[in-house]
Amino acid sequence: MALLRTRPGFRRLWAAGAVSLAGDWLSFVAVSALALASGGGAIGLALVFAAHALPAAVLAPVAGALVDRFDRRRVLVAADTLAAIITAAMAGAAVMGWIGAVQVLLLARSAISALVPPGESAALRRVVEPGELVRANAILAATWSVAFVAGMSLGGAAALLGPALALAIDSLSFVIAAALHATLPPMPPATEPVSIAAVVRATPRDTAIALRVAAGHRQLFEAVLGKAPLALAGGAAWIALNLIGAEEEPFGAAALSFGVLQAVRGAGTGIGPAVAARLARGGVADESLQWGARVAMIGAIVSLALARSPAALVAVTLVWGIGSGTNWVLSHSALQRHSPDEVIGRLAAFDELLVTLAMVIGVFAGAGAVLASGNSAAALVAGALGACGIAAAAVIARLVSGPRPASLLERQAADQVHLAQRDPVVAQDVVGGGEVKVKVG
Questions:
Q1: Closest by alpha carbon to 108, among 82, 137, 69, 129?
Q2: What letter does residue 284 receive in the DSSP assignment?
Q3: Are 99 and 222 in contact (CB under 8 A)?
Q4: Domain at 2-430, CATH class
Q5: φ/ψ of residue 285, rounded to 5
């Protein structure tokens, strides 16, 4: 907590994220409860999740490019303000009973929210020192945990009073987040200003350049791929947890049980990074901690197929959260530590794209398993997806970030010249253990 006292910029970034996250999860429970109440079942839940997450994933590369090209403080304030307006409209639509309009507006809000994760990741680099990144990310993970617990628990209660109330509170949370982000110091980009249209047009090539930079650094590339395998497992398990909670009702009404179980999982995401940080200080390697997190999460998810009592469900969801939270902090800290500032926004956005797409694929795989074989099948499918994802990420990292052929080295150098010509700064790229620098002007 000393980091919050000594770094005022980090304190404001942290507070804005905490308020916004709590509101997000509160309204998410309400919209999920609407889907179940309308008879949507597993597919209805999957569609709600996709509407909540997919637009942000699709637009993540554009969002990352915007973060790298514009003042990060202004990007965050603009995203919060637009999200507040859209969420207020969602509350109005819920009052009128226009469920279709709520879903359409949810898609729009998800698209705007694509700016926030890469914006926060890039801003964090400006408000703490490099040696403080792991601690800062551990605090953010613990805060995500508390916000998740508060949002899910309050969401379960608010859903009983009607979704409009939850959505109105969420809109207010975005207003507060915008006010807090506005107090951050200016965070101009390291590049010359360009138009938004130019950024959008150049996004495919700029994203490819960022990925080639990552591919030249094994640890950075592994960090970019680090979260997606567990997100794949988490998506299918999310379906299983929702439906098992609704079926068993271990803590009362379905919406309340869903909120409590998700809150327990959120608590685990705060506990895991704290334990990992202590073990890391004791000399345990990051790689060992990552493998421990993966095994814990996948084992817990598979156990969900058998867990039915309140105590068993709490234990399973807690360990699930511990594994996923540890994985997130270690992967995110590695990405921030190894990425050049010129491409951090694009790499963070691509990381978000991979994670969200993996979760959406997992959600629909879990829904399909439920339709085919029942609620427990989604948990087993989730475990299989996670194991396959981990193996695939390891193979891809080994193939892509291995020894570089001469032609690829030349192409990377050409990319750096292109980047330097567009931006009169020193463009840097780690290639084969050395550093290539190109300076224009």
A1: 82
A2: -
A3: no
A4: mainly alpha
A5: -70, 150
Helix residue ranges per DSSP H, 162-227: 163-181, 196-215, 218-224
Neighbours of 82 (CB within 10 A): 18
pLDDT, tens digit, for every residue of 185-220?
888 877 666 777 887 888 888 888 888 888 888 889
- 428 phi and psi angles, rounded to 5 deg: -120, 145
Using CA atoms in the order 28, 34, 36, 41, what is the torsion angle rounded to 10 degrees?
-80
Closest by Cα among 269, 3, 272 to 145: 269
DSSP secondary structure code for residue 250 in this structure? T
Distance, in Å, from the CA atom of 64 to the CA atom of 221, rounded to the nearest integer, reads: 17
- 327 near 294, Cβ under 8 Å? yes
Domains of the chain, by residue range, sit at 2-430
Query: Whole-structure pTM over 0.85, yes or no?
Result: no
Residues 104 and 89 sit within 8 Å (Cβ to Cβ): no
Q: What angle do CA 130, 133, 137 make, to 5 degrees?
A: 165
- For residue 100 the two structure tokens come to 């279709």
Phi and psi (nearest 5°) for 267? Answer: -60, -40
Reading the block at residue 213, the tokens are: 């930079």
